[in-house]
Amino acid sequence: MFFELIEQLYSIFTPFRVFGYLTFRSAFAALTTLLICFIFGSKIIEYLKRLKIGQSIRQDGPATHLMKSGTPTMGGILIIMSVVIAMLFWGNLKNPAVWITLSAFVLFGAIGFIDDYLKVKKHNSEGLPAWAKLIGQFAVAITIVLVIYFSGGEEITALYIPFFKEPVLDMGWWWIPFAVLLVVGESNAVNFSDGLDGLLAGLLIIVFLTLAALTYISGRFDFSTYLGIPHIPEAAELTVFCLAAAGACVGFLWFNAHPAEVFMGDVGSLSLGGVIAVISLITKKEILILVIGGVFVLEIASVIIQVASYKLRKKRVFKMAPLHHHYELMGWSETKTVIRFWILGGLFAIIALSTLKIQ
């Protein structure tokens, strides 16, 4: 809204043009979400406490986590609220990619909200039944993917992989189920990575900063041509969203750092995981996102391996899944586990960005 207003003022006062620059708006979107989290974070936490919206802890988890029972959850509402406000203020709302991204963000957040609400209501760690949650995720994913498919250009079904400049194949309509599985899988992978104070927020900051660089480069013809990656003009505006999300995660981390005053909940993890995948679809980074979010891949892989091994062999591969709990039970402190996973997340981001030049 502010962007459209400023556009009309260019002719009156030329210096106003700075507010239209993508880099300026992206930076101030991050600052906006950060300030919203700082200003309203404590108030929202107190409100959640008054409503007795506390986290229920798994009884089979690490014993050190039992003391966290009752900590306010559903803090992801703060992230969603701040990002939506920042995008309405600084984003170019004429760009369809913005609306696709915001829609996915809010809809996945709604599924997470219902799941969190049921957990609080039942006073246990079981919210929506797994089948109901998956139906909701698939419904949202199919809707978003179909919108991208029918509104995208000729290359929307082309599959690019790291280290190759040209697409390896045109998936045709097979791109639709592939994209749906990617969105649902990424949403759940991020959800599984939420389990330690500050772990997911820190990883998401790294991921969104990396995606901000990719959306900016993809949206510029000169940069994308030089690097030999798909030029997607509408993707540039998603830089505003990515930096807004990064700023919101930084603001949330202020309250979520150990010992956490509030947890993100599924309302935050499902929404952020889903929107990461959607951005990767729009920017044609469907495979590269698996490298950028390498820690998320390891986390969900550990769960799949653990479940499959127990069902087939009646033996567990890890002391506990997801992976971060395995290292806790090996003797790593919570803070050490979080910081080491952040370092791993940073390494994955560096590897992902390096593929832009090594191809």
SS content category: mainly alpha
Helix percent reads 55-70%
Find the count of extended strands (DSSP E, 2+ residues): 2
| Terminus-to-terminus distance | 40 Å
Average pLDDT metric: 90
- The unreliable regions are none
How many strands, which pairing sense, and closed or not: the largest β-sheet? Answer: 2 strands, antiparallel
Gyration radius (Cα, Å) is 20 Å
| SS strand fraction | under 5%
The string of secondary-structure elements, in order, is HHHHHEEHHHHHHHHH
Number of helices, counting only DSSP H or I runs of 4 residues or more: 14
What would you call the quaternary organization?
single chain
Sequence of strands across the biggest β-sheet: 1-2
Q: Indicate the overall shape.
A: globular
Please explain how this structure is put together.
By secondary structure, the protein is mainly α. It has helices at residues 2-9, 22-50, 76-90, 96-122, 130-151, 175-192, 199-219, 221-227, 238-256, 265-282, 288-292, 294-313, 323-329, 334-354; strands at 158-159, 169-170. The chain has 14 helices and two strands. A two-stranded antiparallel ribbon has the order 1-2. Helix 3 crosses helix 10 (265-282), helix 4 runs antiparallel to helix 10 and helix 6 (175-192) crosses helix 12. The protein is globular, with a radius of gyration of 20 Å.
